[in-house]
Amino acid sequence: MSAKDCGNHGYYWGERKFYRRLCGCIIFLLFIVGLAVLLVWLILRPTKPTFSLQSISVLNLTLSNSDQNYNFTVLFTTLQLSIFSRNPNSHIGIYYDRLHTVASYRNQQITSSTTLPAAYLTSGDSVIWAPYVSTPSGGAILAPSLGDALVQDQAAGVLLLHVEVMGRLRWKVGTWVSGGYHLHASCPAYLSADSNGGSFLFRQITGCTVDI
After folding, report:
1. What is the DSSP code string of the chain?
2. Nearest to residue 139, comparing CAs of 76, 78, 83, 93?
3. How far apart are CA 47 and CA 79, in angstroms?
4. Could you count the other beta carbons within 10 Å of the beta carbon of residue 174?
5. Do the Cβ atoms of 183 and 98 come closer than 8 Å?
C-alpha cells in the first residue's frame, strides 16, 4: 500500500469518526431536550379544560308521524346554544381543533353536526361559542319508543337533552406543542315548559363531563 493510500485511509477514518461524534452530540441534545420537556410536563400536570352549557334556546320543536302506520316519528327542531370553556392551567396553553357540536335525546343524535371555530386558550383564558344546531332538512327520525317518550315529556312540561362537543385538543408548554388528543364534552340541558306551556326554557347553567 502506498503512502498516498495510507493517507486517504486515515482521512476517511477521521471523517467517519467526526460524523459519528456529531451524531452522538445531536442524539444527546435531543435526549436532553426531551427529558426537559418530560420533566416540565410531569411537574405542571395539565388539568382538563372545563366546559359548561350557559344557555339553550328552543326556537322550534315539532313532531309529526311519518306514515299512516305510525311506525316512526319525525322530529324537527332548531336550537341556539351558548357553550363556555375555560383553561384552568397556570402555565399550559390549550389548542382546540376540529370542534363540532350536536344535540341528542336519550342517546340518539337529533341534530346535524355544527362546526365550532378553532381556539387557543392561554393560562386561565376562556371562550364562548354560540352556534345554532338543527335537525336535517327531512327531520330526525325517531324510533317509536323515543317518539312516545318525547310526547310524554312534552305533556309533562320537562325535557332533558344533551349537547355534545367533540374534536381534538393539543397542549402547549413553552414552545413545545403536544400531539392531538380526542376531546369529548357532554352537557345536560334541563328544559321546562313556560307558564303558558307553549315553549321550553333553559333553567340553569350546567357543567359538562369532559373526557380526553
Report:
1. --HHHHHHHHHHHHHHHHHHHHHHHHHHHHHHHHHHHHHHHHHH-PPPPEEEEEEEEEEEEEEEE-STT---EEEEEEEEEEEEEE---SS-EEEEEEEEEEEEETTEE-S--EE---EEE-TT-EEEE--EEE--TT-EEE-HHHHHHHHHHHHHTEEEEEEEEEEEEEEEETTEE---EEEEEEEEEEEEE-TTSSSEEE-S-EE-EEE-
2. 76
3. 31
4. 11
5. no
Encode pLDDT of 107-129 as tens digits: 999 999 999 999 999 999 999 99
Q: What is the mean pLDDT of the chain?
A: 86
Count other C-beta atoms under 10 Å from residue 207's C-beta: 13
Q: What is the mean pLDDT of residues 162-182?
A: 93
Question: What are the residues whose beta carbons fall under 8 Å from the beta carbon of 87, sequence distance 6 or more?
Answer: 49, 93, 94, 121, 122, 123, 124, 125, 126
Burial of 115 (0-12, 13-18, 19+ CB in 10 A): exposed
CB 165 within 8 A of CB 83: yes
Mean pLDDT, rounded, for 77-90? 96
pLDDT at 158: 92
CB atoms within 10 A of CB 6: 10
pTM of the model: 0.78
Q: What is the pLDDT of residues 14-51, one digit of tens each?
A: 566 667 777 778 887 877 777 666 666 655 578 999 99
